[in-house]
Amino acid sequence: MNFLYYKKNISDFILNQYGIDAKDIDTNFIDNSFILLAHNIDFKEYHSVFSTYKNYNVIFVLDFTFEPYTDFKITNEFYRAAETVGIPFNRLLMLYNNTYKMGLNSYLYKNRIVNTLSFPRWYYEYAMFLDQYPLNRMDYGDYDFTCFNFQGREHKKTTVKYIDKKELNCLSTYVNGKDFNSRSVQSINDNQTEMSLSTYYRGKVNICVETLYYKESKGWCDIICVTEKVFRNLYFKVPFTVVGNKNTLAYLRTLGFKTYDSFIDESYDYEEDEHRYKKSISAAEDLLSYWDTNQLDDILSYNYEFFSNKKNADIHFNKNIMDNFEIFSKSKNIV
């Protein structure tokens, strides 16, 4: 299979980390290829690429790997440009951080079938952070807890306010959209996505508030959203609990990681109650009591080793990405 890219993007970077040599389309074009396109270029550029390569036997791949769901509002320019040029939607494939329907999937969008390929965030985090080695957590921990929030969502606000109510010794951030008072929220020089490594260790246990948090009756409840917030804890050896959709911890265990269910109650992970964030915070308090134990160290070390072992990432990547690229290419007569 051949992979080309129009301007560098995340998927090109990730593929390269797994030994896939994606080449610049302007100087290395070859027919029968996947063409990788970034999610944030404008309609004019999409239109230009589609028009140039319309009559070749290629598949246009939209890199949307950072998002946990198919947000067509953000990707509309890609599909609108394809429709304008006359590119059949069966020649389009979107990569996104889907962890609840692994592999290839199809969705009905404006009377068209949109094809997607699950691209779990682990692949990106693995490629990004192997050059940053964990610090000794025992040298830090000036707070009992951390709770890092970048963009404001209602469940993030609710979590921080509950942390305040319990008067926990917690360093919280709330960079954008803060419209409430909080004793724990402090301004730091970092932002949530590009924090200095030592900042992750300011608290002994991270209360990890994921992007999505839904109760059963509101829909989207089956989406398991696992972003950099969780994976950086796993790699940096930071103990954590999750405020997120149900089965998040169960999903991590299916990948091969370990959670802390051998010594704390993690039943909140299976609950559909919208108040499960309270139990997640209670679990964080329980986890704190194991801060300096061999039980906790063993799990932290195991997850770090599992994460950083390229063999584990390669097996998952080849099975869920490369095998499905091949299936999709054969279905479209791309060889």
Question: Can you walk me through this structure?
Answer:
- Helix 1 packs across helix 5 and helix 3 packs across helix 4 (76-85).
- By secondary structure, the chain is α/β, with parallel strands linked by helices.
- The protein contains eleven helices and eleven strands.
- The protein has two domains: 2-119; 131-309, Rossmann fold (3-Layer(aba) Sandwich), CATH 3.40.50.
Provide a short characterization of the protein structure.
This protein is an alpha/beta fold. It has eleven helices and eleven strands. It folds into two domains: 2-119; 131-309, Rossmann fold, CATH 3.40.50.
Which labels suit this protein?
335 residues, alpha/beta, Rossmann fold, 2 domains, 11 strands, 19% strand
Tell me, what's the shape? elongated
The main sheet orders its strands as 2-1-3-4-5-7-6
Q: Secondary-structure element sequence?
A: EHEHEHEHEEEHEHEEHEHHHH
Terminal-residue CA separation: 6 Å
Count of runs of 4 or more consecutive helical residues:
11
Compute the CA-based radius of gyration. Answer: 21 Å
The count of strands amounts to: 11
CATH topology category name of the largest domain: Rossmann fold
What is the strand and helix layout of this fold?
Layout: E1 2-6, H1 10-17, E2 23-24, H2 25-28, E3 33-38, H3 43-53, E4 59-64, H4 76-85, E5 92-96, E6 104-109, E7 112-118, H5 122-129, E8 143-151, H6 154-165, E9 170-176, E10 203-209, H7 228-236, E11 240-243, H8 248-255, H9 276-288, H10 294-308, H11 310-331
Parallel strand pairs: 1-2, 1-3, 3-4, 4-5, 5-7, 8-9, 8-10, 10-11
Antiparallel strand pairs: 6-7
Helix pairs in contact: 1-5, 3-4
